[in-house]
Amino acid sequence: MGTFRNLFVILLALAAFSLPGRSFLAEASADGPTIIRFASLAPAGSGFHKITQAWNRTLKKETEGRVVLRLYSGGSQGDERDFVRKIRAGQMDAAGISTTGLGMVARPVLVLTAPGLITEYDELVRVRTALHDRFAALFEEAGFVLLNWGEAGKNRLFSAEEFAKPEDLKSRRPWAWKDDPVFAELVDVIGANPVRMGLPEVYGGLQTGMVDTVPISALAAVALQWYTRLNYMAKQNLSIMIGGGILKKEKFDELSEHDQRVLLETSARAAKANDQLVRRDDARAYAALLQRGIVEVDLSAHEAEWDRVTKQARESLVGRVYSKSLLEAVERIVKGE
Q1: Do the beta carbons of residue 42 and residue 72 sit within 8 Å?
Q2: Predicted model pTM
């Protein structure tokens, strides 16, 4: 499980600090602090864990001890599926998860990772700002409070073998995460055969040649050491790797209006700082991989072909993952309309 946890040091360094929601009138219990049991896969001592600890100290100070995080790190509560299940069962209260985990609760949010749709950070910020209430409503319907968004670097193709155009993937063995329908759809549209496996199996798959092509950010490729088995990486990215957090709505309702506001404000500050670090470190990781000899593949010569297959994949997911109206809304925002 080591590689699995290491990835989420990155993926959960998104916006798991942010616990936005609406205002309620419930008062905090007079019997003691409200404990928010917060699960993550980030190991104790990791950067993410330290930042979460700092957030907890600030939260306790600004609520005068009325709200406290109880942190469960290192995957001690299982993986993302376990987090969601335990929150629903009342065994946990909150968790930091990747987009895939968010999609387990509110599947339409996967539109944010639709291939070729959102490729720049400013686009992502505009979309998640404009559509926050729409996404938050989906989570609220499921009994959760949606946590603020964040990033984990630019999601691009890496491969052990040379590639340049979509057709090249037909002779490759691209990995598709078992719980991710988005990239698998792109692979299907291209006409390749996705190799479905869990994330912990990927490094071994790269070693044996079971898989030779993966969608990942430079930051994650370095953290997972996947880059040691890869030789080429795309200059252009397919999307932004994102994630966020979820909080059980019932737990949020236990807080007074003041403490809800403090929770949101302190978490938002941490999330903003974290996003800046992730963007910086992903760019640094990309540059470091070039220095280590990874070959940069410029896909622009085949831009029309990539545009065609990514557009087809996005449209193929309509009705199965997200609605046509949601896709069109995101497209309009990305275009600045």
Answers
A1: no
A2: 0.83
For residue 217, give the 3-state DSSP assignment: coil
Average pLDDT on 230-255 reads 93
Show the tokens assigned to 284.
């640094």
Long-range contacts of 179-183 (CB under 8 A, 24+ apart): 179/80, 179/81, 179/100, 179/103, 179/104, 180/100, 181/110, 181/317, 181/320, 181/321, 182/110, 182/113, 182/114, 182/115, 182/313, 182/317, 182/321, 183/115, 183/215, 183/238
Phi, psi of 183 (to 5 degrees): -65, -35
Which comes out higher in pLDDT, residue 33 or 46?
33
Distance CA 280, CA 290 (A): 16
Look at residue 164 in the predicted model and tell me its pLDDT: 96
Which residues, 6+ apart, have CB-to-CB distance to 323 below 8 Å? 108
Residue 108 near residue 321 (C-beta atoms within 8 A): yes
Q: Would you place residue 1 in the very low, low, confident or very high pLDDT band (cuts 50, 70, 90)?
A: very low
- pLDDT digits 0-9 by tens, 185-197: 999 999 999 999 8
Identify which of 84, 98, 93, 96 has the alpha carbon closest to the alpha carbon of residue 49: 96
Domains detected in the chain: 2-110+120-151+242-275 (3.40.190.170), 155-239+288-335 (3.40.190.170)
Examine the pLDDT at 179 and tell me if it is beyond 50.
Answer: yes
Q: What is the dihedral of CA 40, 34, 15, 327, to 10 degrees?
A: 100
